[in-house]
Amino acid sequence: MEKKEKNHIIPPSSLNEDDKKHKLILRQMETLGKLGHWEVDFVNQTLHWSEGVFHILEMDPSAMPVDLEKGFLSVHPDDRERAVKHMQDVLETGIKYDLECRLITTSGKNIFVHSLADVIRGKNNEPLQIVGIFQDITEQREAYQNLLQKELRLSTILNSEPECVKVVSPEGILIEMNPAGLQMIEADHPEDALGQKVENLVFPEDLVFYQSLHKNALQGIQSSARFRIIGLKGTKRWMESTAVPLTNQLGEITSVLSVTRDISEKVIAEENFIRIKKNQEALINGTSDLIWSLDSNYRLIAANQAFLDVMGFLLGTIAKEGDSVLILNQGEAFYEKWKGYYERGLSGETFKTYERFLSPITGKEEHREVSFNPIRNTNQEITSLACFSKDITDLMLKRMELVSSERRYRALVENGVDVIAILNAEGFAKYVSPSITKVLGYSEKEAMNMNLFDILHPDDVPKIKDRLEEVVTLPEGNSLPSHHFRVKHQNGSWRWMESTITNLMDDESIGGIVDNFHDVTERVVQITAIQTQNEKLKAIAWTQSHVVRNPLAKLMGIVDLIKTGTLSPSEEKRSLDHLIESAKELDEIIQDIVLKSQRVIVP
């Protein structure tokens, strides 16, 4: 643009009072609205600014007039080309002048202005003047940008929010929903869900809860509810939703905003917790054991039904939480004993006691193991005491039976004729019963310090070694047949033993070869004597059998001769005489055998 000397496009005229008033009003309007008007004379190439323009550009109005060059330089460098192009288009094509651009004030501050102008043309449509007005819209522009930034931040927050955020119309139609919400209801695209009724997703049984939530919001009430939904692909979820009303500028409720989160895992955890709690209560209340806790003032905090029953029986009334666990009507000794227990526990001591008493309910003797455990808070301060009374009556009865059984067993072992020993594979003793003293004369201590082979007869050593090696190959609990061997008595004599050995090497409580043996010396001696007698009798029988055969043969021959009936009376008489002689001879032989046998058999 060329710089011209003329200052005004329209020469100033004489001002009357009305003109002054109008000019004052115009100045006030420009100041209040941050407005300014301008005029460009294309014929004379001049520029005119009102006072409002000078104020907007932080210039002194006394600087009038200004030239086109100065006006052009007030435009921001990045917007100058666009401003020139717009002016050319207005002048050449006849479009309306409507431009937003940035100006630079004298202090260097950037401002945004919105300018409107009309072109005054000549007879040949040539542009003569352009008269316009612009307004400082910096604050509006900044407010708009701030609003855009807020909307962008809000949109970013909603889109990244892991919970479902949705806007629903009063009729229950889904208007907006963030991506997390679309994912929850299994919508692949927004159009799959927007415009649809939200109620269609809700479980029929839970519809009343959702409808109440929506209704409250439309009445201006914030509320929350739980309900189940079925996603578009069939997945069932538990949801927890909080709904608030959305209003317009007039305060009218136009829609409902709700934030909903998937609580399926939480509900499952809650259901599991409730189930576990009920199971625990059933277990705790189903036991005869007593469980209770008390505070530092000896007041009952919690207890199972078994304890409440006992405490109620002792008090003579229904026991409840908050009652004192110190019972006075059972005597001073009872009171002081249990108070002492509680004081020890509340002082920080963990301990057990064993109580034996007659049950006030059943009248039977009971044995109980009572545990006291202090309960501490996060600061390790003792706040209460947990107590557990376990019924060990059956255990104690069995224990007493076991003690009696052990005593009977020990009496049998100590006073019996059998010796029980536990050996390792090398013959060393891990245990020897007290009856060893009766059988072999050794004390238990002496026997424990000896090896079996130290007192074993040399002729029996190989066989016993083989038996020990063989028995450990048997399955656990199996035994070898009984066997006889000789052992040296403490007095130096040899005694015969009958032994049965059993493999219990892998038994944790035994861990060895169990040898059960007893003294059979007298029996062995008797058997040996009988065997010797039998041998002598065999010799006598064999010798005398030949002596018996001669008279026996004679008898049989004479009998056969008489039976023929061919003998004369005299011959028959002689035969009978011979028969009598042979019988006497046989009788003498038999008497001799008897005498010899009597000498062999020892009475």
UniProtKB/TrEMBL annotation:
Substrates-to-products reaction catalysed: ATP + protein L-histidine = ADP + protein N-phospho-L-histidine
GO molecular function per UniProt: phosphorelay sensor kinase activity
Keyword Phosphoprotein applies: yes
Alphabetical UniProt keywords: Kinase, Phosphoprotein, Transferase
Enzyme class: transferase
Domain PAC: 97-149, 223-275
All residue ranges annotated as the PAS domain in the record: 405-475
GO biological process: regulation of DNA-templated transcription
Classification of source organism: Bacteria, Pseudomonadati, Spirochaetota, Spirochaetia, Leptospirales
EC number(s) on file: 2.7.13.3
Protein's name in the database: histidine kinase
Organism superkingdom: Bacteria
Entry-linked SMART domains: PAC, PAS
PANTHER family, sorted: PAC DOMAIN-CONTAINING PROTEIN (PTHR43304:SF1), PHYTOCHROME-LIKE PROTEIN CPH1 (PTHR43304)
